[in-house]
Amino acid sequence: QVQLVESGGGLVQPGGSLRLSCAASGFIFSLSVMTWYRQAPGKERTWVARISTGGVTVYTDAVKGRFTISRDNARNTVYLQMNSLKPEDTAVYYCKAALGGNYWGQGTQVTVSS
Fold first, then answer.
1. Pick from 27, 16, 6, 26: which is nearest to 78 by CA?
2. Closest CA to 101 of 5, 4, 32
3. Theoretical Cys-Cys bridge with 50: which of 28, 35, 98, 112, CB 3.0 to 4.6 Å?
């Protein structure tokens, strides 16, 4: 079955960096658009970055120039490199695979605090 497993979250100081990973299985990863979302406490889940099957990327304005999404089809993994982190980036980060329906991972917590 489709499985998405996020990892790489943690506690980081403002200005720091983290790299999130989302390992996929159970489907043809190279054929799926992959998206990172985040959900802060008390707020709705919102999209952060998306990468197409051909590697075209788009970002929400709040993270442009700081975050980079990438994919490794040989490893069935999508990444989110997060630099210059701010306290407002604190959230649970989820990856989503679009396969007709949507499939989600369990999320990984990112906390930006001094």
1. 6
2. 32
3. 35
26 neighbors 2 (Cβ within 8 angstroms): yes
What value, to the nearest 5°, has the Cα angle with vertex 71 and ends 91 and 7?
40
Phi-psi region of 31 (alpha: psi -120 to 50; beta: other; left: phi over 0): alpha
Count Cβ atoms below 10 Å from residue 53 Cβ, excluding itself: 15
pLDDT tens digit string along 3-48? 999 999 999 999 999 999 999 999 999 999 999 999 999 999 999 9
Single-letter amino acid code for the residue at 95:
C
Q: Can you tell me whether residue 98 is helix, strand or coil?
A: strand
